[in-house]
């Protein structure tokens, strides 16, 4: 499907070309990436091994952490290698694969955040029917639909990228392959493609954000009928979710709702949602969630006991 494509590889210009700054970026990215891995893998392990975290909310949190891990891993390792390399090239096929994985796991995170909002709505507004509506089978089907939807979204991105010819230049002014900087290298009119990009990625981000914020307004409004203890617990959970939604969707909306123009700050904003938000998510969910913290303590205690027995 590659039309008149004379480009076999791209040069990623990265965040900077200064050798000293590249080393600083390597250290910062390594710290953030390792922190993200430890935090999210700890949540994944805790949810999988703890019987106390068997509710739908933690079922979705498991997939959120999995999406965060894969989302950052699609970008960070290559960025770390490029920060230490003099020649930062990426093949055409690898670039397209990175676009696919980036949008697949990014869209997956969007859908999981929506499912988490649905779960909180049912738990708070329909408590008597919660276990019936949000059964394990229903949750599994919803996650499967999210996987399929993410795949469709990512395939659309690939279709848009491959529908244009690339005949040079081949320098991408970014530290990873994404559709918007890639389209700038196409030797054809990309106006229609840019409109399609806004209607795809931009619309998904914006509409999802508005829906999520509206749903949490409804949820918070319904808390007035709950007891003080129930209101406190539900409020703590919802605030955590709202913080995650704002941190993730804010930068994404800024980037993907205006693909025809770029600003110098775009790459720094991309750093925030590709590595910063996945790092903060585990902290937000663990620091504000007593059940997760208790399950982690039990998991750590079991590990210490098993190590002492050996």
Q: Any idea of the CATH topology?
A: Rhopdopsin 7-helix transmembrane proteins
Give me the side-by-side strand order of the main sheet: 2-1-3
Any idea of the CATH class? Mainly Alpha
Quickly count the helices. 11
* Mean pLDDT across residues: 85
Tell me, briefly, the overall form.
Answer: globular
> Span from first to last CA?
58 Å
Order of helices and strands: EHHHEHHHEHHHHH
CATH superfamily: Rhodopsin 7-helix transmembrane proteins
Radius of gyration: 21 Å
Largest sheet: 3 strands, mixed
Q: What is the number of E strands? A: 3
Contiguous low-pLDDT stretches (5 residues minimum) are none
Q: What class, by secondary structure content?
A: mainly alpha
Oligomer: single chain
Tell me the β content.
Answer: under 5%
The portion of residues assigned to helices is over 70%
- Taken together, the total number of domains comes to 1
Q: In the CATH classification, which architecture applies?
A: Up-down Bundle
Task: Write up this protein.
The chain is mainly alpha-helical and 310 residues long. The protein has a single domain, classed as Rhopdopsin 7-helix transmembrane proteins (Up-down Bundle), CATH 1.20.1070. Helix content is 74%, strand content 3%. The protein is built from 11 helices and 3 strands, in the order βαααβαααβααααα. Strands 2-1-3 form a 3-stranded mixed β-sheet. Helix 1 packs antiparallel against helix 2 (56-73). The chain is globular. The chain starts with 8 loop residues before the first strand and ends with a helix. The model has no long low-confidence stretch (mean pLDDT 85).
